[in-house]
C-alpha cells in the first residue's frame, strides 16, 4: 500500500472512530448514571438474589449491566486511543506507528468484548431504544476499528519496508 493512501485511510478511520467512541462513552455514562439513580427503588421489590446483584439496571435485561460497563470502558479507551492514534498517524514514522498499532489492537479487543455482550443482550431481548442504539454503535465500531487497525498495520509494514530499502535510514 502506498504510504499516502494508508495514511489518509488510517486518519479518516481514526477520526470516525473518535466521534463514534465519544458517542459510546456519552451514552454508556448516561446509562450508568440512570442505573445508579433508579436501581435502589426498582431493586427493592425484587427477590433476594436479584436485589443483591451488584450490577443491576432498572431497564433492559440481566446482560445490560455488564454491557453498559464494558461499553463505557471501551468508549473511554477507544476515544483516548483514537486521539493519540491521530497524532501518531500524522507523524507517520515507525515508533509512532507501532504505538498506534498496539493501542488500536487493545481497543479492538475491548470493543469485541463489548460487542459480545451486545450480542448477548440482543439474544436475550427486551431492551429500550437507547440500549439498541448503543448496541448498534458498538457493533459498527468493532468493524471500523478492525479496518482502522488494518490500515495502521499496513502503514507499519510499509514503514518497515522503507527502512529495509534505505538501509536503516528513513
Short description:
With 170 residues, the protein is mainly alpha-helical. The chain has five helices and no strands. Helix content is 83%, strand content 0%.
Highlighted features:
single chain; 83% helix; 170 residues; Methane Monooxygenase Hydroxylase, Chain G, domain 1; transmembrane; transmembrane helix; mainly alpha
Topology:
Blueprint: H1 3-43, H2 48-51, H3 64-91, H4 94-124, H5 129-165
What features would you describe in this structure?
This protein has 170 residues and is an all-alpha fold. The protein has one domain: Up-down Bundle (Methane Monooxygenase Hydroxylase, Chain G, domain 1), CATH 1.20.58. 83% of the residues lie in helices and 0% in strands. The chain contains five helices and no strands. Helix 1 packs antiparallel against helix 3. It is elongated. The model has no long low-confidence stretch (mean pLDDT 86).
